[in-house]
Amino acid sequence: MSIPHRETRWLTGGRVTRVPLASFGPRLEGWIAEGGRLGLLTACALPEEPGFALVVLVLDPARHTMELWEAPLVSADGSFPSVTPGVPQAHWFERAIYDLFGLKPEGHPRFKSVILHEAWPEGFYPLRHSEPRLNERNPPRSEYWFLRVSGEGVYEIPVGPIHAGIIEPGHFRFSCLGEMIENLEIRLGYQHRGIEHQLTKVPWPRARFLAEAASSDTAVGNAWAHALAVEQLTDVEPPALAQDLRAVALEIERMASHIGDLGGLCSDIGFAAGAAVFGCMRGRALGLGERLAGSRLQTCYVLPGGVARGLAGSDRRQLARDVRELEAAFERAEPLLMENAGALERMEGTGRLRRSLAVDFGLVGPAARASGVQYDVREAFPQPSHWKVDWKAASGVDGDVLARARIRVDETRSSLSMIAALLDDLPEGGDYCVPMPGTLRPRAAGVGVVEAWRGELIHLILTDDAGRIRRYCIKDPSFNNWTGLSIAARGELVADFPLCNKSFGLSYSGNDL
Amino acid sequence: MIQTLIELLRTGTATQEELFPDLPAWNRGLPTVTQTPCAAEEGCAACAEACPTEAIGVTAERSGGRVALDLGRCIACGECGTACPTGTIQGDRSTRTAKRRREDLVLRNYPDERMADSGPAVSSPFRRSLHIREVSTGDNASDLEVAAANNPIFDASRFGVHFVASPRFADALLVTGPVARAMREPLLRCYGAMADPRTVIAVGAPAISGGLHRGGYAQAEGVDAVLPVAVYVPGSPPHPWCILHGILLAMGHPLAAAGRPPGTARPPRRDGQEG
C-alpha cells in the first residue's frame, strides 16, 4: 500500500478549510468527479457570531486523503442552495440539516423531513439553539407525504413502525402492483433520542458511553470512531497493544454480526436448520468478545487512550483456540446455506442494486462492495494494526442478495484470520491504555472513521474556545445505505422483502440517533 | 439437504440444561454492593462520581458509608467497581437479575423499609405459556440478546414462550430501548391492541430508566413512563439468561424464583459457557 507508513492522522491537525458557499456545490461535485466521496454533510452554529455553516467531511479512498470544509451560510433566512441535484448522495444529509437546524436546502428534489415527523411540534429544530426549544403548543409537524404511484391496480402497503419480528422500528410504504413492489419509501426517525445534542452536554470524558449507544449493536465501531476523534483533539497516541486489541475487538464484532445475519437470512427464507446452526455459532462468536472485553457485545471496552483492560496470556491462548474452533465450525456451516439449492434459488438475482446507483448514493460497507464499489475504510484509511496482518477486503459484482451474503461469508473468514494473526503477534507487555489530558484542544476538529461491520462509520467533533464539544456529528453507515434498500426492493416480490432487508442488515437507531 | 441433516445429527442437542448459571469470571456482570465497609465517611464518593448514569448515591453516616446503587440505571460499564477503593462494590455474575418492583433494583448496603420482601409470587395466568410481542425503541443490542434467548442454546420455547408477530396474539409486551417521544404513540397502540390479561416486561437499562438518554429533549425515560411494567430486566444489554429469567418471572414460573438476597454474591465460576 502506498500510504505513508504509520500515518494515522488522516486529518492532520484537524484543519478546517473555509469554503465560500457559492463555490461549495461545484467544489463538492468536483471532488466526487475525481473519485472521492461525501463522508458527511451537516451544519453547525458559528462559534463566534450568529449564523450557521455547512460542515462537510470529504474522503478520497484511492488517494487516502480527507478534508474538512466549512461553508458559512449567507442568506438571512438560513437557507442554502441544495447540492443534491449534482450530488445525489447528499440527499438525506440535507433533509437532516433541515430537521435539526431549520436550514432549508433550496432546490432539493425531494425535500421533506427525514428524522423528525408528526410526533414533534412544528418549529422544533433541536440543534439550532444551544438549548432545544420544544413548544408543545405548536401543531405537529406537517404530515409527511409519501411518493404516490398511480395506475390501475396499484395499492399501498404500510408496514411499521413496529414490525412483526424482533427488530427495530421504521416505516416501509410499499406501492405494489399485484405482488410486485413498484416503489418502496422508507421513513425512519422513530428512535430519535437526541444523542448528538446530549453529546454536547455531558462532560467529554463521559461521552464515550453515549457515543457507543448511537447503535448499541456496534459498540466497538462507535467507541473506536469516538476514541479516534478525541485522540486527534488531544494528540494522544494509544499504545501498540491497545491498537491491536481494538482491531481484534472490531473484527470480533464484525464476524459475530455477519454470522448472526447469515442465520437471519436463513430465517427469512424459512430455513430453520440453517438459522439454528448460525444462531448457535453467533453465541460462540460473542463468547470471544466476552472473554476479551468483559461483555458479549464488547460494550465499554474501547475508550480514548486505549482499551479498558489488558489480555492475560492464558486468555489470549484460549481466544486463539476458540478462533480456530470457530473457523472450523464456520467451514462446516457455510455450505449448508451457500450450497443449498433452495436458498440459492431465493437469493440469486433478488434485490439487485446496480453499481452506478450504489456509487451515486454513496453506499458503503458489504452492501456497496457486493455491488462492485471497492471501498473499505481498513484499506483506504488503515489503522496501524491493519498493516500488520495480511488481508484483503471482500469484493463482489452482482449486487443481489446472494452477492451480499457472499461478502458476509468472505468477511467472516477474513475477520477470523485477522483475529488469529493479531493474537499471534500481540506486543509482549506494554500498557493497554494511556491517560488522557483534562481538556480537548480548543477551536479544533477531531474525526474518527472506522469500517464498522455495516460500513463506513464517522464521528466528527468540533470544539469551542474552552475546548468543550460544541458539535458532535455521527454518520452511521446505515444513513447511506437505507436508500440502497429502497432501490433494491423495486421489482421484487413483497414476500422477498424480508430477505432483501436482512441482506442489507441496517441499523434503524444508528440512522435516527 | 443431506449435508444439513448430517450436520444437525452431528451437533446433537445444543440446549443448555442448567438454567441461569452464573456468568463466567471474565464477564464484568452487574455491580453489587457488599457489606465490606465503605469509605464514604472519609469523604469518598468515587463510585458515584464514576457512574455515567448517576445510578449511585453515597452518604456518610455515623454508622458508616451508605451506598445505594440503582441497577435500573446501570449500564454495566464497571467504572464503579474499578473506582471503589475498599472493594465495597464488586461484580456480580448472577443471571437471576430480574425484579418485579422498580425499587427492588436499588441495591443497598444498609437496611431500608423499601427492601421488604415483595411477597410471594402472584398466581399468574401465564404459568404454562407466554406469547410475547417484542417492541424495540432504540437499543438494538438488547434486541439481539432477546433474539438469542430463542436460539437452541437457551431455547425459550421449552417453557412455552413464543414470540409472536402481532399484539393480537400476545400475552406480554417486551420492550427494549428508552421509548423516546416518537415511539410513545406506537407503543401505546400496540399495548392497546392486546387483550387482557396482558403484561409488560422492560428489558435493559434504557427500557427501565431511559439509561444514558434520560433527561434529554426526546423525553426518553423508559417504559414505565408510558405503560405499567410487571418485570424489569437490568443490564446493558442483559444476557439471554437474564432475559429468560425475566420472562419466567413474568410467568410466575417456579424456576424463576427471585434472585439471591443482596450482599450474598458467590465467587464467580471459573469455567466458561457457550451461548
Helix-strand category of chain B: alpha/beta
Morphology of chain A: globular
Number of H/I helices of chain A: 17
Profile the largest sheet of chain B: 5 strands, parallel
The CATH architecture term of the largest domain in chain B is: 3-Layer(aba) Sandwich
The CATH topology of the largest domain in chain B corresponds to Rossmann fold
Describe it:
The complex is a heterodimer of chains A (513) and B (275). With 513 residues, chain A is an alpha+beta fold. Chain A folds into 2 domains: 106 residues, NADH:ubiquinone oxidoreductase Nqo5 subunit (Beta Polymerase, domain 2); 318 residues, Cytochrome-c3 Hydrogenase, chain B, CATH 1.10.645.10. Helix content of chain A is 39%, strand content 16%. In chain A, the strands form 5 sheets. Chain A has a 4-stranded mixed β-sheet with strand order 1-4-3-2. A 3-stranded antiparallel β-sheet of chain A has the order 7-8-9. In chain A, α5 runs antiparallel to α6, α6 packs antiparallel against α14 and α6 runs antiparallel to α16. Chain A is globular. The two termini of chain A are 35 Å apart. The N terminus of chain A is likely disordered. The longest helix of chain B is centred in the C-terminal third of the chain and has 12 residues. Chain B has a 5-stranded parallel β-sheet with strand order 7-6-8-9-10, with helices on both faces. With 275 residues, chain B is α/β, with parallel strands linked by helices. Chain B folds into 2 domains: 76 residues, 2-Layer Sandwich (Alpha-Beta Plaits), CATH 3.30.70; 127 residues, Rossmann fold (3-Layer(aba) Sandwich), CATH 3.40.50. At the A-B interface, α3, α7, α8 and α17 of A face α1, β6, α4 and α5 of B.
